[in-house]
């Protein structure tokens, strides 16, 4: 077992920055094939994490404890990416690790149970009877995996619950008494999620920073233990908030009104972000914008900020930054009108995290633009929801998103700082978050280097494969 845990600090730098090492080990299961992906999965149930190393022939897996010590000797298993490219989640029970993989449409599932004592795996293939339900998203809770769907032509959410043994049960949540307004008509939940935004669904992890690229989907799931929140931003006038209590089988529903602009403008863009039981809502046109914050657990008045073209934005702590597109990847926009126009013609997005009791908020818009060129590898913060085949890496959720080998993202944004009472804090420098630090640390790392990022306890870990000596090195952030 060729593993070398670093017992002392040494300086390794990609950009002149010293960083604390966490773990270095040799990929001793390597075949002659070139490594194509590196990703990690964390299991808080027993304070362990797995490292997966994929090449064109096989998938190698190694297990480590919280100090970076290898628990058991690793082993290899076949690749299942072709048949089951999506990783829905993973659990640890009875000394075994289970991965929940699915087809791209999430109609068929494969449960892969890893046994490090026997150096073996077990594969179970299951297919829930989804019928004509609309599939939304899946997530893991308390050793089980939950697939969220909406029953056809209703406002009833049906959950298909998979356990590690392959059995499937169902759980129903009714929102039949809720009203979902689309223009001047009222629809059920199934109808609301129809059309262009039906597949625009993601799950966000609020324990990690999120870039606008990851928070731009109109429909978002958030998980806080057994409480699951689902926000829907497919209409101009309302954000719909649905809550599911998996333990008590209860629901909550709210319709949060968006600002109505006085001037009739055909195109507006809006989106929301949930953080600290608050809903942060952005709505923008080419002439004005409104940013409001609503407490989901109280009836108190919301806090709001607004800006119009022709006047400076007086609640920002950074310049307005545009990145991506053209030969200048970074430039600052001076005029409010340029920012509003770019947001209204792209996908509006919000990102929120907390630092030193202050809310650090990013407001802006992103736009996907077709472009030829080499693939860019993803940085991320976990394994769930990732794609494990092709160019997409198994670490999708955080600083950079790659849509495919032929696209990149163009964004315009600025940041603002609010205190705990949601008052604007002027003249304060916006602090860097963990992903900013990782980005700075790895700024000179070639794009072809295989990398991964994950969060273990309260620490972010970045790792990369050194192709020359076949070692994988991890650092703390």
What about the largest sheet? 5 strands, antiparallel
**Count, helices:** 4
SSE-based structural type: mainly beta
Overall form: globular
Determine the strand fraction and express it as a percent band: over 45%
Indicate the percent of residues in helices: under 10%
The protein's oligomeric status is single chain
Q: Please give the alpha-carbon distance between the first and last residues.
A: 27 Å
Uncertain parts: 1-16, 371-408
Query: Reading side by side through the largest sheet, how are the strands ordered?
Result: 1-2-33-32-31
Rg over CA atoms:
23 Å
The pLDDT mean sits at 85
* Strand tally: 33
Quick description:
By secondary structure, the chain is mainly beta. 5% of the residues lie in helices and 46% in strands.
Describe the structure.
The protein is mostly beta strands and 477 residues long. It is built from four helices and 33 strands. Strands 1-2-33-32-31 form a five-stranded antiparallel β-sheet, with helices on one face. The longest helix has 9 residues, at 336-344.
Topology of this structure?
Elements: E1 3-4, E2 21-26, E3 35-43, E4 48-55, E5 59-65, E6 75-77, E7 86-93, E8 96-102, E9 109-115, E10 120-126, E11 134-141, E12 144-150, E13 156-162, E14 168-174, E15 180-182, E16 185-187, H1 189-192, E17 201-204, H2 212-215, E18 219-224, E19 227-232, E20 238-245, E21 250-257, E22 269-275, E23 278-284, E24 288-295, E25 303-308, E26 320-323, E27 330-333, H3 336-344, E28 347-355, E29 358-370, E30 407-418, H4 434-441, E31 451-456, E32 459-466, E33 471-476
Parallel strand pairs: 17-18
Antiparallel strand pairs: 1-2, 2-33, 3-4, 4-5, 5-6, 7-8, 8-9, 9-10, 11-12, 12-13, 13-14, 15-16, 18-19, 19-20, 20-21, 22-23, 23-24, 24-25, 26-27, 26-30, 28-29, 29-30, 31-32, 32-33
């Amino acid at each position: 077992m060729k593993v070398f845990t670093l017992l002392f600090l040494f300086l390794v730098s990609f950009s002149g920055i010293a960083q604390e090492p966490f773990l270095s080990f040799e990929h001793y299961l390597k075949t002659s094939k070139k490594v194509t992906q590196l990703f990690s999965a964390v299991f808080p149930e027993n304070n362990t994490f797995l490292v997966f190393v994929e090449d064109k022939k096989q998938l190698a897996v190694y297990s480590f404890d919280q100090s970076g010590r290898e628990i058991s000797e690793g082993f290899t298993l076949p690749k299942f990416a072709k048949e089951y490219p999506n990783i829905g989640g993973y659990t640890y029970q009875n000394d075994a690790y289970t991965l929940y993989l699915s087809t791209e449409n999430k109609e068929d599932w494969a449960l892969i149970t890893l046994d490090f004592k026997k150096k073996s795996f077990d594969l179970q293939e299951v297919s829930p009877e989804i019928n004509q339900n609309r599939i939304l998203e899946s997530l893991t809770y308390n050793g089980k995996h939950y697939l969220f769907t909406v029953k056809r032509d209703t406002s009833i959410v049906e959950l298909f619950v998979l356990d590690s043994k392959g059995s499937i049960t169902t759980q129903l949540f009714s929102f039949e008494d809720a009203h979902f307004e689309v223009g001047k008509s009222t629809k059920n939940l199934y109808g609301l999620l129809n059309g262009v935004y039906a597949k625009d669904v993601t799950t966000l992890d609020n324990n990690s920073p999120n870039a606008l690229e990851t928070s731009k989907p109109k429909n978002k799931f958030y998980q806080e233990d057994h409480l699951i929140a689902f926000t829907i931003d497919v209409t101009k006038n309302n954000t719909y908030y649905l809550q599911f209590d998996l333990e008590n089988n209860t629901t909550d529903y709210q319709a949060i009104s968006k600002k109505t602009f006085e001037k009739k403008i055909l195109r507006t863009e809006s989106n929301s972000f949930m953080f600290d039981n608050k809903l942060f809502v952005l709505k923008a046109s080419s002439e004005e914008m409104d940013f409001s914050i609503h407490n989901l657990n109280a009836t108190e008045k919301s806090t709001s900020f607004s800006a119009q073209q022709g006047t400076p934005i007086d609640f920002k702590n950074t310049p307005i930054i545009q990145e991506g597109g053209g030969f200048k990847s970074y430039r600052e926009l001076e005029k409010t009108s340029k920012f509003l126009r770019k947001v209204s013609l792209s996908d509006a997005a919000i990102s929120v995290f907390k630092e030193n009791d202050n809310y650090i908020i990013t407001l802006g818009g992103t736009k996907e633009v077709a472009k030829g060129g080499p693939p860019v590898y993803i940085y991320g913060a976990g394994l769930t929801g990732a794609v494990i085949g092709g160019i997409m890496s198994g670490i999708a959720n955080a600083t950079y998103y790659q849509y495919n080998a032929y696209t990149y993202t163009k964004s315009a944004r600025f940041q603002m700082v609010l205190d705990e009472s949601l008052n604007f804090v002027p003249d304060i420098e916006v602090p860097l978050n963990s992903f900013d630090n990782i980005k700075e640390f790895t700024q000179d790392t070639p794009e072809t280097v295989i990398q991964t990022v994950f969060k273990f306890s309260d620490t972010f870990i970045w790792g990369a494969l050194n192709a020359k000596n076949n070692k994988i090195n991890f650092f703390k952030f």
